[in-house]
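Hey L., structure's done. Input below.
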Amino acid sequence: MKQVNMVQWTVLFCLMVVAGAFCKEIGWADTLYSSDSTKLSVIISVVFLVSTVFSGYALFFGNKKSLQQTKRFNEFTGTSVLGLGMLGTLIGMSNMLGGFQNVVASDSGSVQQFISNLGTGVGVAIYTTISGLVASLLIGGQNYLVSKEARSL
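Output:
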């Protein structure tokens, strides 16, 4: 069973690398980085990478105890990245709505600044939500393999 789970994780890892390279090639990764002023997407990505390395290591070299520890770690990180994504959503919404107090209808400069803040806030909200959701789903998929391996030992 160990070899099957290792192969499945390796295939999943390779697909993630290809998807990451594709996102970088078409500019999505750069857009994500530049649009997220909070840089929570970067934190989410780092947590995801750490979880991925732990999962791979546990599947290739781990015993039952290390697999169970990795399972708990993945449960924590999966929930954490989702929470960070939601935090980014709240920060983005706050940025969007915070500009209402400074808008003077007769001043075109303040209206333009408000519209700019709306765009920035929407970018933060959308990109952190997507980052957190995708990372959480991928951590969950890896955790399924870790859990399956832990049960088989």
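Residues 7 and 115 are 49 Å apart (CA to CA). Helices lie at 2-25, 28-35, 40-61, 64-98, 108-152.

-- N.
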